[in-house]
Amino acid sequence: MDTKINLLDLSLDELRGFIAELREPRFRAEQVWQWMWQKGVSDFEEMSNVSKALRGKLAEHAVIRPPTIDTVRESDDGTVKFLLRLADGALIETVLLPSRTHYTQCLSTQVGCAMGCAFCSTGTMGLARNLAHSEICGQVLLGRKWLEQKNSQDKGERSLRNLVFMGMGEPLMNYDTLVKSLHTLRDDKAFGFSSRRMTVSTAGVPGRMTELVTSGLARLAVSLHAPTQELRERIMPRAARMHPLPALMEELKKLPLRPQERTTFEYILIGGLNDTQQHARELVRLLSHVRAKINLIACNPAKDSPFAAPTMEAIEAFQQVLRDKGLVAMLRKSKGQDIEAACGQLVTQKQKEQAR
Ligand code: SF4
């Protein structure tokens, strides 16, 4: 068994401690940190400003091991989905979503998910484990590197600008590692993402939303998907029971938002289930005491899903009800439908293939 420490699992402070244990000066930690995260180097021999003696000690006691790419699928619309293999063989997904000027990367935080949302392939897997710091930030390392290579081939300039924690897993159920990862992603000597460009999407974990907003590390998005407790329990049963709608809304009302800041609500429109004008009116009432921005997403059902995509008429009518009441409501397009880009679809497909 490999007993070497994976340096990608350490925070900068922890790396300083490790370097001190090797009896090396403190500034060496910053150098190694920059090589790993800023330059994406995983071979100690490439760390040209690190002394030969330290490179030798590092090779003896440590490794730099990000996840590896198992499969890459590119969609006709430019969406790129990666199936990543972790050191224990587990599979996770990360997706690059293009816009005209830049890319947004969607990140996973757990292997599987305990929340069991009925519309989500990941929800059918159950929770296997939380992701480690190396596995969360490692997704960004791989996404950024892939884009750099693509840009150099195509002479393109669209870089990775935004991160959304909207992939496999409930980020706030892996809270400590999420926070540690956000610090690394924000660090100028690592990735340098601004907090305004990182969004954590949650189904609602009591107390954790307030903690995250108070930390100022990232923006918050809440997956709502239903305007009533009863309907929410049908669509996202465990999340709805863990933080019932009245308590969830109470917590959201008291969030310490900055002036002009709004909480984003994600609402997946599912054909015939939560997409009527009556549901839209109930949603308006529910959100009447919070500063809200609503992202409407048309359901992109997996092949064997019991759910249906909404009609365009239903989507437009729903959006109009919200807008008529002065709510900011954007329609987000489902991207990468031809490559199973919705959360968990590629992993479940691969698991089925392996079981055959
Ligand atoms: Fe988990 Fe998110 Fe899927 Fe719900 S939608 S089961 S919270 S991964």
Write structural notes for this entry.
This protein is α/β, with parallel strands linked by helices and 356 residues long. Helices cover 37% and strands 21% of the residues. It is built from 12 helices and 14 strands. α5 links the parallel β9 and β10 (198-202). The mean pLDDT is 93. The structure holds iron/sulfur cluster.
Number of strands: 14
Poorly predicted residue ranges = none
Distance between the termini: 29 Å
Structure class: alpha/beta
Largest sheet: 10 strands, mixed
Cα gyration radius (Å): 21 Å
Strand order of the largest sheet: 3-4-5-6-9-10-11-12-13-14
Approximately how much beta-strand content do the residues carry?
Answer: 15-25%
GO biological process, one term: tRNA methylation
Cofactor: [4Fe-4S] cluster
Binding site for S-adenosyl-L-methionine: 169-170, 201, 223-225, 300
Domain Radical SAM core: 99-338
Quick overview of this protein structure:
Helices cover 37% and strands 21% of the residues.
Brief descriptors of the model:
356 residues; alpha/beta; ten-stranded mixed β-sheet; 21% strand; binds iron/sulfur cluster
List the helices and strands and how they pair.
Elements: E1 5-6, H1 12-21, H2 27-38, H3 52-61, E2 62-63, E3 68-74, E4 80-85, E5 91-98, E6 102-106, E7 110-113, E8 126-130, H4 133-154, E9 159-165, H5 175-186, E10 198-202, H6 208-215, E11 219-223, H7 229-235, H8 237-242, H9 245-253, E12 263-269, H10 277-286, E13 292-298, H11 312-324, E14 328-332, H12 345-355
Parallel strand pairs: 1-2, 6-9, 9-10, 10-11, 11-12, 12-13, 13-14
Antiparallel strand pairs: 3-4, 4-5, 5-6, 7-8
The chain binds iron/sulfur cluster.
